[in-house]
Design a protein that fits this description.
2 copies of one chain form a homodimer. Chain A is of the alpha/beta class. Chain A has one domain: Ribonuclease H-like superfamily/Ribonuclease H (Nucleotidyltransferase, domain 5).
């Protein structure tokens, strides 16, 4: 299963492509799309959409996994994260690529075993799981890869449970 | 000046087109785009984008005025409003139509004279200003028209002040 992980943001949007199956994951690509925080809001979204479309067309993921955002004390952060999420939803849906959401806790638990792991622990585990020579930078890139690993593994686990249930029934 | 007012939302997105100059306003079109709250989030955004693009292409506004959203106790509301706002920003920017934001207080003050007017007062004034036979329904439609009137009048006022300043200088 190939997953495009998206850590949504307008100033920095982390993107990471992973091929994964239960317990295994290989990095295909990683990057960060940046738009100037003093730029025109519409232009920033259009730029991000073009980049996102480029990634979808180049890597053809089976699914896009996006971080689900909850409340933030800073409403501006929430809004720009939501705008970037909308761009990902639009671009993927138009290509008939399903979009799934995972909370930060789910992602941390999937890659480190603890939902309360800090950023350094997540980055360290992503580096180890993917067998990278050096940790992905910035943190948004590591987060996007962690999202992709999380979904690839959870998806594989669900598929395995479905198969076991089917076998038990049949 | 022709303004497309957008009261952003996913379940109901109010759209209103107004031709206006200082103290005058004529309604060109009004409507509400609805998407099912239990629908796929991506499909809802794609549908809203198509509708928004249709309005932009049909009515060719000089500017799009969107309600600026602040904190809401319900994060789901904030997110879906932000997603709808992103759709408006993308569609307008791709057509090189500028997007402006007005707060609910600015809109209420522009059409009723008080930033603390309630929904019924806003609807009543919109109906009166535009000389409509009956109040626009639902409230989202009236809000979209109020936004468009607000921007048409504020824009006209700024242009007038600019002209006066220029005359004073020259």
């Amino acid at each position: 299963m190939r997953v495009l992980g998206v850590d949504p943001g307008l100033t920095r949007c982390g993107l990471g492509v992973v091929d994964g199956r239960l317990g295994r994951a290989r990095m295909v690509a990683v990057g960060v799309v940046r738009t100037p925080s003093d730029g025109d809001p519409g232009e920033r979204l259009v730029f991000l959409e073009r980049e996102m479309e480029g990634w979808l067309d180049r890597y053809r993921p089976d699914v896009v996994a996006v971080e689900r955002v909850f409340a933030d004390s800073n409403i501006t952060n929430v809004m720009s994260t939501a705008h970037a999420t909308a761009v990902a939803l639009l671009a993927a849906t138009k290509r008939e690529v399903p979009v799934v959401f995972h909370t930060p806790t789910e992602v941390k638990a999937a890659v480190t075993g603890s939902g309360r792991a800090d950023k350094a622990q997540v980055t360290a585990m992503v580096t180890r799981i993917l067998g990278l020579a050096s940790p992905p930078r910035p943190a948004d890139a590591a987060d996007a890869l962690a999202l992709a690993i999380c979904h690839a593994w959870r998806g594989a686990q669900s598929a395995r449970l479905d198969a076991l249930a089917k076998a038990a029934r049949g």
